[in-house]
Amino acid sequence: MERLPKKNMRKEIGTAEKQYSRVQRPLLMALCLALALLLPPGCTGQEALPYPVKGEQNGGACLPNNDLLHVFQMQAPLPREKDSQIGEYVRRVYQDSKGHHWFATNKYGVARYDGEALQYFSVDEGLGGPVVTSIVESRNGHIWLATNGGISRYDGRAWLNFDKADGLPHSWAWSVFEDSRGNIWAGTEQGLARWEGNGFTAVAAPGMEGRTVWSIAEGPDGSLWFGTQDAGLFRYDGAEYARFTKSDGLPDEGVTSLSFDKEGRLWLGTMFGGLSAFDGQHFTNYAEQADFGGKEVWATLAGRDGEVWFGVEGQGLFRFDGKHYIQYGPEHGLEVRAVQTIFEDQQGRLWVGGGGGLYQLAGHQFFHVSKEGPWDGC
């Protein structure tokens, strides 16, 4: 792997904005506004470059390549009405077996787009809580959600909720997952639980009990992996639990997200240690190789094409092909700096959500998806 020095990485990722005089800037801004209103939206299909060749990439409006338009986009982005967003904070994106897309929000419950209409489900519709942080569909077609009011299950007609009184260690749930054997697992504010058919049972996992379980994933060999808030990473092989901490090479013991690539490597996002990968023997910590402007990674995705996507708090989205990093931000139409979810759907479309709403990638340009869409292409 090419090792990028931190100082060179920062130079490649960020350059200074062009300077304009106080007299020139208002004139340029007025001209840019006029052009932005007259020109129709449309994606250019240009390849995204590592930050930051100014003027070579388009702004969030998918406008033609033009340095003046670029200055307008960066200096005075058009305001977006909060009421038009799926949610001001989109925590998860998921697609069920029917092809319906589900969007977890930090305030409005969950929204479902069935190809024709967008429908919200929150407390008034029977959801356990308005904060949704995880979504999964079980093999019988039920939708399970982790909420701040426990685990909610939807059978297509009504919601059924499970909290501490139903066996969860805590009523605030962070993660929910179905393994290849059909077992439903729930990570809560104070430990792990497993569905037993009519309720949950707390799992006695040494070192994980009483700890917040943020993320769950399954490896190619059927082993289950659990990321916790401050107790590190856990592996369950069906018989016993193994724990990995900083003493084993883990960069940080707050593991926010987990994703396996097609080679069987586990990619991890951590709270204070950045992006890491585990090959079964050793951890590779990428924050030691390049400076991404921060080390708080809340979302990771190992894509089907072998590339890895991850978000860095305050810095937007990164794509890693094994040698090079490409950063996506406002210049590519992506106005989410706090990335919470990265999802590749059945059609191969990439969705990104977080603080700033919901976005989809079209070619090499992102476009904003509001309550009215667009749902496929900008």
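^ that was protein a. below is b, sequence first then the tokens
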Amino acid sequence: MKRDSRDTGLKVIITLVLLAVVGVFVLIALTSNFENWRYTFRKNGQNPYDFKLFYELVNTSSPTEPGGIKRPLTKCADSLDNVNYFFLGSRHFLDSANAEALISFVKRGNSAFICASTPSNSLFERLKEYGYNLNYYSNLHSETVRVRAEPYDSSYTFTYRFGDETNSRNWSYASDSLRKEGDQPVLGVISNNLYSDTEYINYYSVRVGDGKIFFHYEPLLFTNYFLKEKKGFEYVSDVLSQLPNKQIVWDNYHDQFHYRIDSEPSPYNTSPLKYILKQPSLKYAWYTLLAGVLLFLIFRSRREQRIIPISPKVENTSIELARSLGVLYMQSGSPKYIAVEMMKLFADHIRKKYRLTGNPAKDDFQEKLARLSGLDLTEIQQLYTLERKVVYNPNATKKDLSNLYYALQDFYKNAK
């Protein structure tokens, strides 16, 4: 008998594990085409806000150095020449040493295109030595924007979308002081398409030595969602037309913060688990393994022992007590005693809830109670009349007691 129960339990566990595995694969099938609307900004990602279409566009129209930059600029910038440096991402992570390496690279006659909503502050600080004060940038909160770029032949309207809905967001732009300084050619502008015609700078260049650095403040406009339309393609073409026709080298390193001071990759960024979670097949296999371990811990890790006998159900004797008390009161032959107990409970109720004490027979007491409870004074007066009829009338009947009970229940239910 004991062996049969174990076999049954094992079958249940195997069935649950199989159901969990099937559930995981069903989830994979259902979510394989799911669009992630977060700012993932991945080079080869296919989500709406990834850069796959832009990378394909640039790589097919211009010669590209295979692999790109995968280490700090301090260790590779000197070997780069006659190329366009390209960075595209949410934030440009450059420390002072790598910023100096990039400037030295540009001074030799090269160009750098940096598109980031949060540019490198270290780079801006370094450019102050060349007379450029670029630290100030702001945001335009809007759902729809209009952008233009050199040669300003056309303007393009873009609307931000998240899932099935359009939403407002912060569109980045540079300080308007660039117009006044006049040393930085303005190559592109952005404006609120609905509420204002004021145009803000979101694309410009600065000359450093024999080369130029091009700054664009809105990487979202280079994502798959906008490039799949003709107007998005045309706008990006206008932006890229300002760059020299040279080989392109992608910066695949400085889009993440690197922990070590010497700019070497942090060991925390290269863990095996991080690699597993980046691969869809390995990720779901990992989740399946965790689910199996969890099921084992739930069903098989506990100590096996004989079945504990079922304890008898504990009965609630409070109802029996109330029934016995009711019988004793009724045997007295007078409803007076029950009415007195009911009114004691009522007096305690109004004392705790309304902090009202005194002689209920007085009119001012009943008026105060009516005002505090929100009931009509006639209802309060009728309640105390029923009390006197039951308590002080030796000929009171069960029906009179019942009327007093329902009057009290109406008060409990309707009083505020």
